[in-house]
Amino acid sequence: MTIAFQRCINPACAAEFDLLRVLSKCPKCGNLLDADYDWGKMRLPDRIGRLGRVDEWPAGGLAAVSGVWRFGALLPFAPAGRRVSIGEGHTQLRVSPRAAAFAGIKSENFRLQYEGLNPSGSFKDNGMAGAFTHASLAGAKIAACASTGNTSASLAAFAAASGLMRAIIFIGDGKIAYGKLSQALDYGAVTLLVKGDFDDAMARVQEVCAGEGIYLVNSVNPFRLEGQKTTMYRILEGLDWRIPDWVVCPGGNLGNSSAFGKALYELYDHGLIPKLPRLAVVNSSGAPTLSRLVNRFGLKWNGGRVDDDAIAAYYSELDARGEKARTLASAIEINRPVNLKKCLRALERTNGVVVEASDQEILDAKAWIARDGLGCEPASAASLAGARILVERGIMDRDSLVVAVLTGHQLKDPHATVAYHSYPEDKLRSDFGGFGVTASPFANRPIPVANSLGEIIDVIRRTAREG
Ligand SMILES: *Cc1c(COP(=O)(O)O)cnc(C)c1O
Ligand SMILES: [Zn+2]
């Protein structure tokens, strides 16, 4: 496998490193690394419609049915027999008329890409297939991550299912939804509850991994992002290779948006798609680093000459104000996104945009997604909330072909859902007012009834009349 290598994203450095070196940043200039390939030596599909089918199937195991590794021709860093899988990537691209109506987009032109169907319940499994495989190729015995919950659930599942490595996870104490914590504990990962938030846990895990030779699977890992490219391939496949006008996703650590951008411009640069969709990345207004830097301070990739001073100034201002990320969309409660520069690159290449949605807008959007029979966690609904805002502002056309990515499953965080639908307004205000959530206009309220046949029948008839 000599066609795969790693390369610094900073064009002024562009240092290249061996595929199997374990690095979380460029040793020369400190920037992020990409996985890249000698594209001239790759066996690309002769036409785009066959993209998903060109790869030879490995002999057996879950990798043979992986929705990541079937696109192995476009992430060729692991020989077929060494690909690790938990059967990830069996997702759906769904027509979603109610969600479309909420966003104000023509329903035949709108799709939700449901990544909550992954084995551990979030898109993180796509990336973990890549990172875990690279860890195993590199001979790692222990893998670690900091997590708001889903990365740790995925790592713990891969470690348990493969038996190849021990998993150690770093969680900001009190900053994790129970569904996600339950997974890490149940799968047997060493689970450290670090006093602090995600950004603190992220800083500590990077120090620990550098010092102790532990393999880091956070999305600074370029092979995570290789696996996460496959969401885009599955979307294109689901659209029968029509190119959407827009792809919308939530922005937390910005790994997904970076991976989506890379997937798309690689296809475009190598002649496999005729045009690029525009990427829309949605921050929660409680964790708005990307949106503030891009929309307020005009931060750009700028051909790789990113204004590092502007980023440093923004972070020191956050520190001076003691400002921490704070949103009910816990998967995107991140103020120091590690993939910031890669995301800026993706935005530049795709003529992308960034918007902020409030937690109220996110929970309202989530209720509309569920009306189409799709359950997602709050962070995922930022996609639809963002699409609605972009339509309102006239940036997204109601006739556009739009795909919004649902990143994680509803049952990850049932607390927010139950609260939205069942809390009386005063309790909602007192529990969630601090997040800006004060009402639940689209609630489906549970109905208390006496243990009485007559009353139950009356209530059922009344709900039938109310339709
Ligand atoms: C991780 C995660 C996100 C954020 O994705 P990034 O790649 O970190 O921007 C959004 N939603 C869910 C459900 C997640 O698990
Ligand atoms: Zn470099």
Describe this entry's structure for a reader.
The chain is of the alpha/beta class. Among the domains are: 1-42; 92-119 and 223-415, Rossmann fold. The chain has helices spanning 97-103, 124-137, 150-162, 178-186, 198-212, 222-228, 230-238, 255-269, 289-296, 308-320, 340-350, 359-371, 378-392, 414-422, 425-432, 453-466, and strands at 4-8, 16-18, 33-37, 92-95, 110-114, 142-147, 166-172, 190-194, 215-216, 246-250, 278-284, 353-357, 402-406. The strands form 3 sheets. A 6-stranded mixed sheet has the order 4-5-13-10-11-12, sandwiched between helices. The protein has a 4-stranded parallel sheet with strand order 8-7-6-9, sandwiched between helices. A 3-stranded antiparallel sheet has the order 2-1-3. The protein is globular, with a radius of gyration of 22 Å. The N and C termini lie far apart (61 Å). The relative contact order is 0.13. The model is unreliable at 54-58 (pLDDT under 50). Bound molecules: pyridoxal-5'-phosphate and zinc ion. Zinc ion (ZN) binds at residues 8, 10, 13, 15, 26, 28-29, 31.
